[in-house]
Design goal:
Elements: H1 3-6, H2 11-18, H3 22-26, E1 28-34, E2 40-43, E3 46-50, E4 56-57, H4 68-78, H5 87-92, E5 94-97, E6 101-112, E7 115-128, H6 136-140, E8 145-146, E9 151-152, E10 155-159, H7 165-178, E11 194-198, E12 219-223, H8 227-238, E13 242-245, H9 251-262, E14 266-272, H10 276-279, H11 283-290, E15 296-303, E16 306-313, H12 314-321, H13 370-376
Parallel strand pairs: 10-14, 10-15, 11-12, 11-13, 13-14
Antiparallel strand pairs: 1-2, 1-7, 2-3, 3-4, 5-6, 6-7, 8-9, 15-16
Helix pairs in contact: 8-9
Organism: Cohnella soli
Keywords: ATP-binding, Nucleotide-binding
Domain AAA+ ATPase: 151-300
């Protein structure tokens, strides 16, 4: 937890968080501040309440309880003492602060013609701690490579919330922009131009347009821009070879991704889902999958405090979704025991989804020159 993040909190609340044990600080993921309710944190794969001296407890009645004054002061710091300046963010239910930390908000919704106009009486905050994990992408990237085109396949990374999608996509962007492909057969490929559409300001954590996370030397960022519009802006103005977007799911996102495909641009995206079955249960994602857009799917899951990944090709996805197998609808809690065959739930009524595969356009890249790549040592960290 950085000092700049700590400084968001009012002094009395900050003093509690500063006393957290060091191992907890280094794995801190969430700080939940609720008016007149126990202070709670999420770290590793656990949740605990926090006492006034910074020690942890499983008992809510032992926890420090933030007051209305604490919540009011926190909101003022988050909004720089001007709620109207972040009215659009309040309408969406979160504010992203310096460093890429996203703060979810809960309160009373104010409606305008049936749509949420903004929030008021805010009494709940979920501070999600953003941190780079350099090296995360190196474990996954070799399985995403399209060797015929010397770039990545169109890829969708899926998981429930807080499994590491944004952290992974950030490090993959860095690897691709730097030309670190982490595969011996990709030596000499060089780097690719990466365009990130960072709607929630989490991937790059830009400060006045400049990324604060390391995204490599050949990366451009559209900050706080809606994904669908941003994808088209990137293609028209910045000629990316790979477009990176987080949390797709709307029909307009799908149309922009299809436009990127036809423009010869590779797409690296994330979406909320607990597995392939959930992907194919969401109409927008199912449509993209059925059209053969994605050549790879990366499924993320937690095992204890470690994030594990599984890479599935489009052909494998087609085979998996054609089977009738037991599954539990939705994500399971982090501390739930592994699902056994005996405890699985029959998937009655699940209709298999047909997944097509399609050839992707070849990316125009210069052929490797043996003498140059040998001198430059491209392709490896």
């Amino acid at each position: 937890m950085t000092q700049s993040l700590l400084e968001l909190f009012p002094i009395s609340l900050r003093s509690v968080l500063e006393q957290l044990p060091t191992p907890v600080k280094t794995t801190l993921e969430e700080i939940r501040v609720r008016e007149n309710r126990p202070l709670e944190i999420g770290y590793g794969s656990r949740y605990s309440f926090v006492r006034a001296d910074g020690t942890l407890s499983e008992r809510e009645n032992e926890a420090f309880v933030p007051s209305r004054e604490h919540c009011k002061a926190l909101l003022e710091r988050i909004t720089h003492h001007s709620v109207y300046a972040v009215e659009e963010e309040l309408r969406r239910g979160f504010v992203t602060v310096s460093g890429g930390h996203r703060i979810g908000l809960a309160g009373r919704a104010v409606l305008d013609k049936g749509a949420v106009a903004h929030l008021k009486d805010i009494a709940g905050f979920n501070v999600r701690v953003a941190r780079a994990k350099v090296g995360f992408g190196s474990e996954v990237l070799p399985g995403l490579l399209d060797f015929g085109s010397r770039t990545i396949a169109h890829t969708l990374i899926v998981s429930p919330p807080q499994q590491g999608k944004t952290t992974l996509i950030r490090d993959l962007a860095r690897c691709i922009s730097s030309g670190h492909w982490h595969h011996p057969s990709a030596t000499g490929w060089g780097s690719r131009k990466v365009g990130i559409v960072d709607e929630r300001s989490e991937i790059a954590a830009s400060d006045k347009g400049v990324p604060t996370f390391d995204l490599g030397p050949r990366c451009d960022v559209l900050d706080a821009c809606p994904k669908a519009e941003g994808i088209m802006m990137m293609i028209r103005s910045m000629s990316p070879e790979v477009v990176v977007v987080d949390e797709i799911g709307r029909p307009e996102d799908a149309e922009a991704i299809r436009e990127a495909l036809h423009a010869g641009v590779r797409v690296l995206a994330t979406a909320h889902a607990s597995g392939l079955s959930d992907v194919f249960a969401r109409p927008v994602l199912a449509g993209l999958a059925a059209d053969g857009v994605f050549g790879r799917y990366v499924l993320l899951s937690r095992s204890g405090g470690k994030v594990e990944h599984r890479i599935i090709t489009a052909d494998e996805a087609a085979r998996e979704t054609s089977r009738r197998f037991g599954r539990t609808i939705g994500a399971t809690p982090r501390d739930a025991p592994p699902l056994t065959k005996a405890s699985s739930v029959p998937a009655e009524g699940i209709v298999p989804v047909t997944v097509n595969t399609r050839a992707m356009p070849t990316i125009r890249s210069p052929a490797p020159v043996a003498s140059l790549t040998a001198d430059r040592g491209e392709g490896h960290d």
